[in-house]
Amino acid sequence: MGDTNVNLAELIGSRICHDLISPIGAITNGLELLDMVGAVQGPEMELISGSVGSAGARIRFFRVAFGSASDHPLGRAEIAELHKDIERAGRVRVHWAPSEAIPRNQVKLAFLAMMCCESAMPMGGEVEITVQGDQWQVMGSGDKLNIDGDLWKNVTTGRFPNKITPAQVQFALLPETAGILGRRVAVETTSTRVVIKF
């Protein structure tokens, strides 16, 4: 495709999420109207509503993690609401410590790091995101972690001995995105904790 400063992967991620969020929002509005008039009730309605809410939250999360990012700030309230929506359908609890608005490109890095942590916590756990000065730390902890040594050892360089699968794409994107922002990724792992710094 030749030399270009356009990141096609980010643009594709943004486009897919943008096009999906509108119909998901319309379904959510329709379910709320059905609930208001009492047309449909019961566990079936709860299942549909919960699934649609979870899908919408994940799409909004992916739009930040995989989409194009700028230094336009995201506020704490918006980030906290997004995490709360995701937690409803997941096993991972998120603690977002920064209180101020954060540039979107840095939130993107934090979300990619969160996804790396989540991949190590199939039984659930907690992810804590903190910032001291210009240094970010994303720490995942749980009773039973499943750490893929090849992924975690090589996420600092972005060069992996084995082919990356779609479920592992965050491990490749994290060091690449960090490098664009002039940052380097550092990792620490134990049997109950994974730490990513950038």
Distance between the termini: 31 Å
Question: How many DSSP H or I helices?
Answer: 6
Indicate the overall shape. Answer: globular
Average pLDDT metric: 88
Structurally, the number of domains stands at 2
How does the SSE layout of this entry go?
Blueprint lengths: L7 H30 L5 H24 L6 E2 L1 H12 L4 E5 L5 E2 H16 L5 E8 L2 E7 L7 H6 L14 H12 L5 E4 L3 E5 L1
Parallel strand pairs: 2-4
Antiparallel strand pairs: 1-3, 4-5, 5-7, 6-7
Helix pairs in contact: 1-2, 2-3, 2-4, 4-6
Describe this structure as you would to a colleague.
The protein is α+β, with helices and mostly antiparallel strands and 198 residues long. The protein is 51% helix and 17% strand. It contains 6 helices and 7 strands; from the N terminus they run ααβαββαββααββ. α1 (8-37) runs antiparallel to α2 (43-66), α2 packs across α4 (104-119) and α4 packs antiparallel against α6 (169-180). The longest helix has 30 residues, at 8-37. It is globular.
